[in-house]
Design goal:
Number of domains: 3
CATH architecture of the largest domain: 4-Layer Sandwich
Number of helices: 18
Strand order of the largest sheet: 3-2-4-1-10-9-11-15
Number of strands: 25
Helix content: 25-40%
Distance between the termini: 12 Å
Bound molecules: 5-amino-5-deoxy-1-O-phosphono-D-mannitol
Strand content: 15-25%
Largest sheet: 8 strands, antiparallel
């Protein structure tokens, strides 16, 4: 999704600008642009395509090689197609102001209709309205840029983060935040503003996050934050993220590296959780409501099964994009919000509604310092390190680790219980799966020939199937749907044919025998079944087209060993098809629009 960067320094901001923009690439985008103040005018270069295309365009232009104040942007199209014209930054008629923006200005049409008689619009975006609105407010007001900026922001509706530079106030970056992330990072000389904490990893480990409704004015030697008329004082917080973990380290794609990091991630997550075990305390509650989006939602479905099975809790799970519209009674509830980024707009909005309704908020989150982590009553850190591939992998496994331990904790188990000991053994078993990557790769090449796939599993393997199908869709662009295997005969069985591959996730567990019957229903109708089974169970699944085996573990822990098989299946299929795995088309790492 869109990314903002702005730098104001006494040194050369250009040197920091492009590497930081490149670190925003992982979020997903379709065009990019930069703006600098040169000779009293704003100079903008923007380009549809990749940052490398932008850099070539900059090289051909007279864009300065040295500047103290710059802004840059990666755009993920919402209003208007991906194009050079619609890329940010956008400027006013006189090219004195440049604006970059994330989010959506909901009243942009109304504002544009008002401004259009006197202003020359050059794009279809909602963002361009901001530049012209500031220009108008400057002309109508005292000519003071800061007041014009403040006045303009107060006229905007929607959720947004904005950064602007101008020749009327050189050296300054004006920023505004309303329900879209924006942080100020401390540099050795000056400051950087960004919408994405991980993009700052190599250049700073100290940030000051902005809160909703705040405006910041950033200069090379200081910054001020205001909410309305009130000056806000806020200390910087540390972001504990590791530079090396944000590099590919010899792997072809980040996603591959992140899949192979999972054994270590599980160990780290267990250690961190156990080290706080005695301090974690929950307020009284009557029910648990789990909410999240996408992959994190699938982790939530598993969390529900564990909380019900181990802790005998009463648990509901809902997509955050649905929960927020449901008029639910949140009183006496513990809301567990799961998010890698901690910035997903729907998740943030639903937890705010839940908190207003009296819920206490537990955040299962990977980015400390993110909005979700700051708004939570209790933070359970997933400790996966930066995840750069758009497709979530290691963060899913770390979410499972936290949710499993949370179930033990709420179930009153001790940290030396046999379930904790079994969990501690799981990273070795994940490693064993990864060591068999070759056999998964050869099956994946065959999967790549299909256009449709079904993923089938029961009980704890159903959320795993949902996650496996999502991975295949998002990176290999193969249509994949997941069903509880028992649901096949109620409709989806009609789809089965030799053109349909069916991935059965059926480890040795309480529903294994039931799955065998469902497997037979599929193979008897010519369906090509890939059975993911526990080692030694291969004889039981005869008739399967292909069999992939996982190490034995407790039935309740099987998602930890079946998930990596499905991740690799999708990864190798996508790689065989030659896709850009880390940045799948149309997708964004951090989904900050509703
Ligand atoms: O950052 P979050 O975990 O809140 O993101 C939610 C989803 O957008 C995310 O899990 C998405 O489904 C995955 N990147 C897909 O692999």
């Amino acid at each position: 999704m869109c990314g903002i960067v702005g730098i104001t320094t006494n040194g050369n901001a250009i040197e920091i600008l492009f590497p930081t923009l490149q670190r925003l690439e992982y979020r997903g985008y379709d065009s990019a642009g930069v703006a600098v103040l040169a000779d009293g005018n704003i100079k903008i270069v923007k380009k549809q395509g990749k940052i490398s295309d932008l850099i070539s365009e900059v090289a051909k232009s007279n864009f300065p090689r040295y500047a103290k104040v710059v802004i840059g942007h990666t755009r993920w199209a919402t209003h208007g197609a991906p194009s050079d014209e619609n890329a940010h930054p956008h400027s006013d008629c006189k090219s004195k102001i440049a604006v970059v923006h994330n989010g959506i200005i909901e009243n942009y049409l109304e504002l544009k209709r008002r401004l259009i008689p006197k202003h020359n619009f050059r794009s279809e975006t909602d963002t361009e309205v901001i530049a012209h609105l500031i220009e108008e407010n400057l002309e109508l007001g005292s000519g003071d840029f800061e007041s014009a900026f403040l006045n303009s922001v107060s006229q905007l509706e929607g959720a947004f983060a904005i950064a602007a530079i101008t020749s009327y106030a050189s050296g300054k970056i004006m920023c505004a935040r309303r329900k879209a992330p924006l942080v100020i990072g401390m540099l050795n000389s000056g400051f950087v503003v960004s919408s994405d904490v991980p993009s700052l990893i190599p250049i700073t480990d100290k940030i000051v996050p902005l809160e909703d409704g705040e405006i910041a004015i950033i200069e090379p030697n200081n910054f001020t934050i205001r909410k309305g008329e009130v000056l806000v004082k806020r200390e910087a917080v540390s972001i504990a993220l590791d530079v090396q973990k944000a590099e590919k380290g010899g792997y072809k794609y980040f996603m591959q590296k992140e899949i192979f990091e999972q054994p270590k991630v599980v160990e780290d997550t267990i250690s961190a959780f156990l080290s706080q075990w005695d301090e974690i305390a929950f307020p009284p509650y009557k029910k648990i409501i789990v909410t999240a989006c996408g992959t994190s939602y699938h982790a939530g479905l598993l969390g529900k099964l564990w909380l019900e099975t181990i802790a005998k809790e009463n648990v509901e799970v809902d997509y955050a994009s649905e929960l927020r519209y449901k008029d639910k009674d949140f009183s006496d509830s513990l809301v567990v919000a799961i998010s890698q980024s901690g910035e997903t707009a729907d998740t943030l909005e639903s937890v705010r509604i839940a908190k207003e309704g009296g819920a206490k908020l537990v955040a299962v989150v990977n980015i400390l310092g993110s909005t979700l982590s700051r708004e939570a009553d209790i933070v359970l850190h997933t400790n996966a390190g930066p995840e750069i591939g758009v497709a979530a992998t290691k963060t899913f496994i770390s979410q499972l680790t936290v949710l499993f331990l949370l179930s033990l904790k709420l179930g009153g188990l001790r940290k030396d219980s046999h379930l904790v000991s079994e969990l501690r053994r799981i990273s070795e078993k994940i490693d064993k799966v990864l060591r068999k990557a070759d056999s998964i790769e050869s099956v994946a090449k065959e999967v790549a020939e299909f256009r449709n796939a079904l993923y089938l599993g029961r009980w704890v393997s159903f959320p795993v199937s949902l996650e496996g199908a999502l991975k295949l869709k998002e990176i290999a662009y193969i249509h994949a749907e997941a069903y509880p295997s028992g649901e096949m005969k109620h409709g989806p069985l009609a789809l089965v044919s030799p053109e349909m591959v069916a991935v059965f996730v059926m480890p040795k567990d309480r529903v294994f025998k039931k799955n065998i019957s469902n497997l037979k229903e599929v193979t008897a109708r010519g369906g090509k079944a890939i059975s993911v089974v526990t080692e030694g169970m291969d004889k039981e699944v005869e008739g399967s087209w292909r069999v992939l085996q996982t190490p034995e573990t407790l039935e309740i822990l099987t998602p930890f060993v079946t998930t990596p098989v499905l991740q690799l299946l999708a990864y190798y299929a996508a790689d065989y098809l030659g896709y850009n795995i880390d940045q799948p088309r149309n997708l964004a790492k951090s989904v900050t629009v509703e």
